């Protein structure tokens, strides 16, 4: 394999992930602002982003901490929100599971919503990619995203409340997830899972400690799984 060939997937990964920078910047900045408003100092805020590197779980934990939620509930809620990472890992294993341990560990740490979405789409479209090419592509995808997450978390923590409310940085949260979720609606099971989760989350909005989101997530996964089984049975009976 030539040097050019090895570098090509990495460069392509950077290009494919570049549009997410527009969403990561306000998302990370908002987290930095909210974290400092919640009482975390800059070191604690940065440690939170570097260790956890999962925006949804970080925002969930912060919100619960501000509500003086018991620590056990905070941990359980954050872990529940991040359960999707286990599914991401299982989905990526057939493609990069044969890579060296240190590469798999690095990919595991940097498996986030954006890196999974972009990478799995590429791997499914090009099944003939070699394992080194897949790892290079994956690392290319995280190159413009992860440093931006760290950097703009710091920016948010430093400027804090100085950012005008009129900037409405909180728009980045729904926009980010809508941009990631929409391309994943590839089967009826995906659509059913999303619809059930939305309906249940609205019905369970009053559940204490934001546990309604966990209930909605579980309900959505169960509905999606049942739809897949129904479709499989229907296909088998044809």
Structural write-up:
It is a single chain. The chain is mainly α and 238 residues long. The chain has two domains: 3-170, no CATH class; 185-238. It is built from 13 helices and no strands. It has helices at 3-17, 21-37, 42-52, 55-66, 71-81, 84-96, 101-109, 113-125, 131-142, 146-159, 172-181, 188-203, 211-236. One of its GO terms (biological process) is L-valine transmembrane transport. It is a multi-pass membrane protein. Pfam families: AzlC.
Specify Rg, calculated over alpha carbons. 19 Å
**C-alpha end-to-end distance:** 46 Å
What is the count of β-strands? 0
Helix residue percentage: over 70%
Structural class assignment: mainly alpha
* Main β-sheet description: none
In round numbers, the mean pLDDT is 82
Q: Quick one: overall form? A: globular
Element string (H = helix, E = strand): HHHHHHHHHHHHH
**How big a fraction of the residues is strand?**
under 5%
**Domain count:** 2
Spans of at least 5 consecutive residues whose pLDDT stays below 50 are 1-6
Membrane topology: Multi-pass membrane protein
Family: Belongs to the AzlC family.
Transmembrane segments: 20-40, 46-65, 72-96, 135-160, 167-185, 191-224
Subcellular location: Cell membrane
